[in-house]
Amino acid sequence: MSLARADVGARRAATTGTVDARDGRPGRARGRWVSARAGRGGRMPPARAVRTPMKPVEEVAGDASGVGGGLSQQTPFERQYKDYATGYASVPGLAYENMGWVTDVEGEIPKEMEGTLLRNGPAMYERGGFVKSYLDGDGMVTSIAVKDGKAYFRNKFVRTEHFDQEEEQDKYIMPSIFTASDPRPFPFFSRLFGDIIGGDLRRKQNGAYNVLNWGDSLVAVDYKKPYALNPDTLETIGHGACDLSSAMHTSHYRTVTEPDGSRRCVAFLNEVDWRTETTHAVFYEFDENGKEVSRRAYDYPSSYVHDLIVTENYYILFDCPVKIDFPAVFTKYIFEKSCLSELICEDTSRRPLFRIFPRRGDSRDVKTAPADYWCYAYHHVNGFEDKDGNVVFDTCTWDKFTLYFTDICNPNGVDNYPRMKLSRFIIDMDKLEAKHYLLSDTPCELPITSWDYTGLPYEHMYLSTSVGRTEDGVNGPMQALSKASLKIDEQKLYYEEQWVPGDRKFAMEPFFVPRKGGTDEDDGWVVALVHDAAAEKSNFDGRGTEMVIIDAKKFSEGPVARLRLPSYVPFGVHGSWSPKYVAGPPKEDELKRLQEMRSKNDGKPISLGASAAEPVIHATPSPQAIGVGVASLLMGITALSSILG
Ligand SMILES: [Fe+2]
Q1: Could you tell me the distance, in angstroms and rounded to a whole number, from the CA of residue 643 to the centre of ligand 1?
Q2: pLDDT score of 261
Q3: Backbone phi and psi for residue 462, each to the nearest 5 degrees, phi listed first
Q4: How far apart are CA 122 and CA 136, in angstroms?
Q5: C-alpha–C-alpha distance, residues 201 and 184, integer Å
Q6: What is the pLDDT of residues 353-385, one digit of tens each?
Q7: Rounded to an integer, what distance in angstroms lies between the CA atom of residue 68 and that of residue 86?
Q8: In 546-562, which positions are buried (b, 16+ CB within 10 angstroms) versus exposed (e)?
Q9: Count of alpha carbons within 13 Å of 8, Cβ hemisphere only?
Q10: Structure letter (DSSP) for residue 47
Q11: Of 413 and 185, which is predicted with more confidence?
C-alpha cells in the first residue's frame, strides 16, 4: 500500500452523511419524488433531497417541476428546456470581453478559500449572418479569482489562428465539426473533392473545450491543439509555448498523487485511422512544474473514447463501439444535410470493453475486459485498484450514442437525448471481465471528485444532475448539483442529495476545492457557475450567471455564497479549479497598457464593461506557431472520436 493510500484510509474514517433510501438493486430504488419547486427572492433556496426523481409523465407535465409549475406543456419539461436553452446565447465577440471585481455577493466568500475557477466554452457562434452550431462557437475563457474573501472576474476569447483570420475578415472561413452548413465558397465541391476525395478534413480550431492551470502553464484546450494563455491576463500566447500546450492531447486529463507524494497531470490523445481501423493512443505525464516527464504510445482497434481513468499502475480507457455511417457521407454530408459528427454512429455488433494500459515499467501488455452492460460513457468519475488488485471504474453511462448533442444545440428533452445513470464497473483483472453495478438512476453528468483522491480509493463525488425524468425515459435538463457517497467496498450509495439552484436557474459543471489543512475527503467546497434565465440584473437580455460556493460537508444547506457575475457566461463545456490565484486584478504591466488605451480614447472605457472596474483590452493577435495537420477523410472524421473533451 502506498503512503498516499494509507493517508486516504486514515482520512476517510471521520466522514459522515445521511443514510440513503436505496436498496442497491439495479434499476430499483425506494423513496419518493420531492418537489423541485424553488423559492425566489432574497433567501437562498434550500437543498432538496431527491432520492428518486421519478414522476409519471402527466404529473410532470402539469407541474413544470422546478420552474414555477402550473403551465400547460406540450412535452415533458418543455418550459424548463426553453429556459435552459437561454444559456446557449451567442455573445457579440471581442466587445464582450470584460474584467472587474465581483461586488454583488449574497452570503460570504470563505476567507480561507484561495484559487481560481476557470471555465471554457463556445461563446460566439454567429458571424456575418452565418450561424454555427453552439459547440462550434469560438472559445471564451472565464475566470473568477478568489482570495481574502473577494473575487475578481475576467472573460477573454481564445485567439486561435482561425479566430484571428475570421475576425480580420469578419466572416467564417473554416468549416466546423458540429455544423452542417459550410462557409466555404462552393461547399458541395469542397466537401466532395476536398474532403472526401482529397482527404483534407481540416476543421476550425475554436479553443473552446477546457482550460487548465498546471505548473506555470495556463492552457485552453481544443482537440489535439492546446493554446497557452497568459495566466495574469488570459491573453492567448499560442500553441506550443509550453510543454502542456505542445503535446497533442484532448481536453480530458487527470491529476494524480504519486506514491512519493509528488503530483502528476496525465493527458492523452486518442486518434483513429478508420482506413486501417486503428486507434493511436498517447498518454502524457507532466510533473508539478508542467514539464513532460513521460510519454507512452499504443495502437489498438478503432473505437470511441472521450475520457480516461488513471490509477496507480494503469491508464484505463472505456472503448465504446461506434462505426462510420458511410451512406450518410454521400447522401447527406456532401449536401450539407449533416455535419461531420453525425457520421459516427452506434455499432451494435460488439460489446463495450475496457482497455487497461500499463503506466509503469517496460511492460507493453495491454489488457482488455469486456463489460457485461451495454452503454456509452463520456465522462468518468474516478477509479482505483482495490485490495484484491481489481480495478474499480466509476462513470456516467448513457443508454445510446450521440456525437451530435441535439439537446445541446436545440434542446427539448426528447430528441436524441440519452438516458444517463451513475454506474460502477469492477474489472476483474484475473478473469478480465467487467461487472456493472447501478449506483444511481438520477440522470447525471460532469462528475468530479477531490483531486487529492484521483486514482485512489475514494468516497465522495459531485455531479450535475437532472431534477426530473419521466418513466418513459425523458430527462429534465441538467439543473442541479448532487453529492453522492459510497463506502469503498460497497457497490451502493449510502448518501445522495441534490441541490437545486432555484427557479429558472441551471447549475453547470461542479468543481471541488479542498480546504487547506483539511483532513476529510469532503472537507472543502463545491463551486460551480449557475445560469439564470431570468436575472434581475442582466447585461444580456435577462440572462445572468452566478458562482455558487457550497460547503461540501454541509451540502444540504446550499451555498454559503452566491456571486453575481458582471457578465452572462454561456454554459460552456469544461473547466477546472486552480489552487493558484491567477487572472486576478491587473498588474503593473497590464495597467500601463490599459492607461495607454484609455488615453487614446479620451479616457473612456474601450468597450463593454459597465460593471467592470477596468475597460477591456483588445490584444493584438498573437503569432501562432502552428502547422495545421492535413488528415485524410476518415482520419479527419475520427478526430471527432475524442472531441468535446
Ligand atoms: Fe468532455
Answers
A1: 7
A2: 94
A3: -130, 135
A4: 7
A5: 13
A6: 999 999 998 888 999 999 999 999 999 999 999
A7: 17
A8: bbbbbbbbebbebbbbb
A9: 23
A10: P
A11: 185
Instruction: Retrieve residue 190's grid coordinates.
Output: 469542397
Tell me the helix, strand and coil percentages in the chain, rounded to 5.
15, 35, 50
Ligand 1 centroid – CA 378 distance (Å): 6
Binding site, annotated residues for Fe cation:
252, 306, 379, 574
All three cell numbers of 2? 502506498
Cα angle at 171 between 166 and 172, to 5 degrees? 70
For residue 138, report the distance from its CA to the centre of ligand 1, in Å: 17
Give the pLDDT confidence of 584-617 residue by residue, as tens digits. 999 988 888 888 877 776 665 554 333 344 434 3
* Nearest one of 487, 467, 492 to 478, comparing CA atoms: 467
Eight-state DSSP code of residue 343: G
Residues with CB under 5 A from ligand 1 (ion): 645
Residue positions counted in the chain: 645
Residue 538 C-alpha cell reads as 442582466
209: DSSP letter: S
How many angstroms does the Cα of residue 592 sit away from the middle of ligand 1? 38
Could you give the CA distance from residue 68 to residue 544 in angstroms, rounded to a whole number?
18
- Residues 444-454 have pLDDT tens digits of 999 999 999 99
CA angle 223, 122, 510 (to 5 degrees): 85
Beta strands in 91-214 (DSSP E): 98-101, 104-107, 115-124, 126-127, 130-131, 138-147, 150-157, 210-214
Q: What is the pTM of this model?
A: 0.84
DSSP 463-515: EEEES-B-TTSPBPPEEEEEEEE--TT-SS-SEEEEE---TTEEE---EEEEP
Parse the chain into domains and list their residue ranges: 4-57+86-643
| Cell numbers placing 559 | 451555498
Q: How far apart are CA 30 and CA 514, in angstroms?
A: 32
Place of cell 439552484: 501
What's the confidence (pLDDT) of residue 409? 58
DSSP for 224-243, written as a single string: TEEEEE-TTT--EEETTSSH
